[in-house]
Amino acid sequence: MPHDFKQFPELTNSQMDMYYFSSPHKQIFENFFAKVIRVTDGDTIQVTMEERDFDFPIRFLDINAPEMSEARGQEVKDWLRVRIEEQEVEILIDKRNRVDKWGRLLGRIFHRGMDTAQEMKNLGLVTSFEARNEGKILPMREFKWA
Fold first, then answer.
1. Residue 51's domain spans which residues?
2. pLDDT (0 to 100) of residue 106
3. Paired sense of beta strands 44-48 and 32-41, if any
């Protein structure tokens, strides 16, 4: 079954053996600079870079922003848009955790030397990814015994 590189340009580590050589573009494993062309929501941006002829999404690693349907979703998106849209950012890639289940590249985004996710956490706009289920009862399959 062929991989849909248009919808899912990034390969997960487990897909590398099967699809790496058929990828029409360079897979990203290293840190890079890119221009933010659009803020999708509070934890996803669309970027462009010289090495690719298409724009692609980056999901902030290890943070959880309110959904756009939630009260603060638009507020967080607007803050992020003012902060980094149309700006050059540095994206740090963790080689062991580089693509999410929806095919988005994961990264830490730095703007002018500042960790943007940490700024949002300090302002109370987002939570750490681990805290997203804080206070919720997890299904038994997700519960971990201490």
1. 13-19+32-130
2. 96
3. antiparallel
What stretches of 1-138 adopt beta strand conformation (E)?
32-41, 44-48, 56-60, 63-64, 88-92, 105-111, 114-115, 127-128
Note whether residue 104 is domain-resident.
yes
The closest alpha carbon to 106, from 119, 96, 114, belongs to: 96
**66 found inside a domain:** yes
The amino acid present at 72, given as its one-letter code, is: R
- Strand-pair category, 56-60 with 105-111: parallel
Q: Is residue 2 part of a domain?
A: no
Whole-model pTM: value is 0.83
At residue 140, the pLDDT reads: 47
Q: What is the mean pLDDT of the chain?
A: 87
pLDDT surpasses 70 at 17: yes
The token pair at 133 is: 């289920």
Residue holding tokens 């507020």?
75
Tally Cβ neighbours within 10 Å of residue 57: 17
Strand partners for 112 = none
